[in-house]
Design brief:
This protein has 185 residues and is of the alpha+beta class. It has helices at 6-12, 19-36, 164-167, and strands at 48-51, 54-60, 71-78, 86-88, 93-99, 101-107, 109-113, 117-121, 126-131, 135-138, 143-148, 155-162, 174-177. The model has no long low-confidence stretch (mean pLDDT 88).
Length: 185
């Protein structure tokens, strides 16, 4: 049997980082920090942000509260006669319409494989009309955009998605078109 030196190296030992112990300590520290984080985040502690997708208020995000690990949620406002940015992401999305009426356009996406891979986006979107009290499902990898049909009032919805793809390193966000009010600040 060919020996590759591990028996000798195990007996000699080799100084290096304490990876196993560092991980154990880090897990204990994270649990301690999580136990001290609040279970309620007040409205004034949530952050509004102007993004290429539009104006959003972060409701659940790990940077707001260490207890939140695998969900992101935000409230979005669409101005009268406005629209969000058009984008695609790996995670499925759940939207609950709080106020207003409008519609969402969904472009189905297919994976193209050959020497390389890419996304083939349907040329025609499907339209889904919604109003306050409805919920909208956006499937995995679907290109989508939302529109406010009211010329006087804002539309407002809550959006939630799993962070699992981000945690696995597979988050594939593609911003295709920015919201009109985004200036790239």
């Amino acid at each position: 049997m060919k020996e590759f030196g591990e028996k000798r190296r195990a007996q000699e030992g080799r100084d290096g980082p304490a990876l196993y112990m560092e991980d154990l300590i880090a897990v204990k520290q994270e649990k301690y920090e999580d136990s001290r984080a609040p279970k309620i985040i007040r409205a004034n502690e949530m952050v509004w942000e102007d993004t290429p997708h539009g104006r959003i208020k972060h409701l659940a995000h790990p940077k707001l509260n260490s207890r939140v690990k695998d969900i992101e949620a935000y409230m979005q406002v669409i101005p009268p006669d406005g629209r969000t940015g058009k984008h695609r992401h790996m995670a499925e999305e759940f939207m609950f319409i709080l106020e207003g009426r409008g519609y969402s356009l969904h472009w189905d996406v297919e994976l193209e494989m050959g020497d390389s891979y890419g996304w083939k986006v349907s040329s025609k979107p499907q339209r889904y009309d919604w109003e306050a009290g409805d919920w909208v499902y956006v499937p995995v990898n679907t290109v989508h955009q939302h529109f406010n049909l009211d010329s006087q009032q804002e539309a407002r919805f809550i959006s939630a998605a799993s962070r699992i793809y981000k945690l696995l390193g597979w988050h594939d966000l593609e911003q295709i078109e920015n919201a009109p009010e985004w200036e790239g600040n």
